[in-house]
Amino acid sequence: MDAMRGRSVWALVFLSTSFVGWEAEAQAPSGEEQQYLFSVLPLIDKGQLAVAEEKLVEGRKLYPRSAIIQNALGIVYLKQNKMEAAVAAFRQALQILPTFTAAQLHLASIYQQQGNKKEAAELFAAVGKTTPDFDALVTAGLGLAQCEDYPNAIQVLEKARFLRPESASVAYNLALARYRKGEFQSALDTLGSIQSSDETQKADVLFLRGKLKKGLNQTGGSEDLAQACRLEPSSETYCVDAGLALMKEERLQEAEQALQGGLGKSSSSLPLRSTLGLVQFRLGKYSEAIESYTQVLEKDPAGDASREGLAFLLYLTGELEKARNVVEKGLKNETSDFYLSQLHAMILYRLSPQLWREAISSINRALEKKPGFAPAYFLRGKIEMDNCQLEAALQDFQKAAELDGKYPLPYYKIAQIYIRQGRLQEAEVARQKFSELGNLREEELLTKQTQDLLMQVVR
Known about the structure:
Blueprint (H helix, E strand, L loop, with lengths): L30 H15 L3 H14 L4 H13 L3 H14 L4 H13 L3 H14 L3 H13 L3 H14 L4 H14 L2 H8 L7 H17 L5 H11 L4 H13 L3 H14 L4 H14 L2 H14 L4 H13 L3 H11 L7 H14 L4 H14 L4 H13 L3 H14 L5 H12 L3 H14 L4 H16 L2
Helix pairs in contact: 1-2, 1-3, 2-3, 3-4, 4-5, 5-6, 5-7, 6-7, 7-8, 8-9, 9-10, 9-11, 10-11, 11-12, 12-13, 13-14, 13-15, 14-15, 15-16, 15-17, 16-17, 17-18, 17-19, 17-25, 18-19, 19-20, 19-21, 20-21, 21-22, 22-23, 23-24
């Protein structure tokens, strides 16, 4: 799934000096403990942390079984970035009172920041089972979602929503958790309950609704994504997703408008500009697409999608040496995308017969990374055929046809080889198959193949 924006998603806010989660009167702190803590809170609020720490350490000696003082000491350590000491203080608070909600949430938050998702999720889930406090439930639910424990996140957020069914933010995050869990229809139903005039939240809801509709193959998803982008063009994610969705529906001018709107607010966004390059490519605005891809590569030389788009357009427009230079810079990276090697072979094949041996090597590298890529077998067959290696060429063309049953070009070449070999009946069968699949020109098929591949890697 595509990542949602961090601004509106899974925001942990329950880090305060309050104490919650007392499960029985007998476990509540004594009046003396509370009075001592209240005398220290102003020091914390004023940022006088060293003095507050000293006072709380003294208080811990006076009240060694005080969970609230241990919790407050943990907060002070946290504010001082003394993480090990904070963890120890919160753990001690929980040893004294295992159901102390504030300490559970603080410790879970630290574990989460440290990447200990399992331990964090266990604490967040424990809060969800015991506390009746709305804010604590929301924090625990969002924490579970951040830890990717969506089943428990859904349960806890449902509990919070029961307490305050009018809360739009809880409903939104509940829908988002359901979306992450793959429960698209229930997520969409939850979103339908949100009534808000807040334009920012409206954009969030529209975006998630658009993603859900697309996931459910319902109409209107692209419109929701586009509207979210218009409401908040500064959101890179919203506008890139809108552009991609509109492009997939061949609404290319709308896609271009959405992406340009996003770039108007985030001119340095590489994903926006790279996606715009692909839309311009699809629109036939080759010079503009070349400029967009060039701008991306200047800032991010590792961007395979932009490098492949630029190289193919240069290849298509006959600037073969420039295309070769663009590709070979990318191939210095051993982890580069397989299609960069395929493009390299295509360029070398067109440049000169003297480069065909090197082209074969590039094809083989592409096939090492993606063994089932039919166009690589087709290109290798073309080179073999030009070198009069008809049997080897025939095998590669047949392999390409086997891998992609909708690929017409191999059948055209197979028919040519059969004619040379005097196998006229077989040649006619291959020719008919070519006609059935659509006798498009090779350049048209290459363009479509490249665009389809770039659609997959543009993000």
